[in-house]
Design goal:
- It is a single chain.
- This protein is an all-alpha fold.
- It is built from seven helices and no strands.
- α1 crosses α4 and α5 packs antiparallel against α6.
- It is rod-shaped.
- 6% of the residues are buried.
Length: 139
Amino acid sequence: MAKTTEEVEKFIELRAKGYSFDRIAEETGTSKPTLLKWNSQYGKELEQAQYFELNSLLAQYGLMRRNRVEAFSKLLGTALEELQKRADTDNLSRLPTDKLLDLVLSLEQRVMRETEGKKLEFSSARDLDWVLASYVEVD
């Protein structure tokens, strides 16, 4: 019996969620050999579904890179402000300076790792002139 598109889509959905072949066979009534064949046959579709499933989970729990960078940046800003206040007032009573400095350095490294490779770079002066001209009015 030929399987319908809906059955294949259900397989891809369940497999993307991490279900085992045995569990999918049990839930869908499709034989395990057929599921294994579909796994090979629809590999690209399965990869895409797994990608979207993972991104959905990451977004659901606030684990996306943008959220992490934002959180680390806020913490870094707060730690730097506190370090500046302590430097200005010589009030170092709540947190030892070495621990605050360690926190600042650790957060700076984390922000650098999160933003690594995300910098805007220009291959030539002409590209830079074009970008600047698009933001700055020239008389």
